Amino acid sequence: METGEIFRKDFMKIKEGLSNIVFPPRCPVCDEVIYVGKDTCEDCRKKVICIGEPSCKKCGKPLEDQRREYCTDCMRKKHYFSQGKAVFVYQGEIRQSMYRFKYSNKREYADFYAKEAVRIYGDWIRRKQIEAIVPVPMYRWKEKGRGYNQAAVFAQTLGEKMNLPVEKRMVKRIRNTTPQKELNDVERKINLKKAFQLVPNIVKYRKILIVDDIYTTGSTIDAVAEVLLQAGVDEIYFLCISIGEGF
Hints:
- By secondary structure, this protein is an alpha/beta fold.
- It is globular, with a radius of gyration of 19 Å.
- 36% of the residues are buried.
C-alpha cells in the first residue's frame, strides 16, 4: 500500500472519530446517544415491533387471527400492486421515530430502517426479481420546503444495500394533494386521482418496488402503481418502513 493511501485512510479514521465526539451517534428510535457501532440502544431494540406472522398476504399488515389470509381492507378493495411488505408496526416508539425522520431532518435514521428491511425482506426482494426501486414522490414545492423526500432517502439507502437502481425521477407528483391522514377511504381515492405522472414515456423495467414511509390503506401506493402499470410494467411490489395493524 502506498504512503499516500495509508495517510488518507488514517486521516479518515481520525475525521470519523472526531465527528463521533462532536456529533455522537444517536438511537434512531428514541434519539438518545448510543455507543459507536450500535444500531439502537438496548431498551429500544426490545420495544420495537417488527412485522411477523400472521400477516395479510396482500399488503403485509399484521393480523390477530391466524386463520385469516387477508386484512379487511384488502378483502374489500382491488389493489394495483401484486404484494407488499412493511418493516415495523406503526405504533409507540417507531411512530415517534418516524415523525422525527419525516419532520426533524433525521435522515440518518434511514440507515437503520434499511438495514432492518434487508434483514427481514432482502430474500423476498431477490425472489421477486425486483429490477428497480421507485420512491413515492412529493409535490415539488412541499419537498423544497421540507428539504428532502423521506421516501426517497429511505429508497436510496435501501437501493445501495440491495445493489438496485433507484429511479427518483421516474414518477412525478403533479398535484399538491390533501394529506391522506385527514381523509376517509373514498376521499383518499379521489384525492389522488391524476396526482402522479410518469416522466419518461417508456419504462425499461418489468418488476418495480415502490417505497414509501407509511402504509395506511394503500391508496397512495395504488395511485403510483396504476401509473407504472399503464406504462407497461408487469408487476408492482411495495415496501414501507411501517404499517398499521390489520383487522
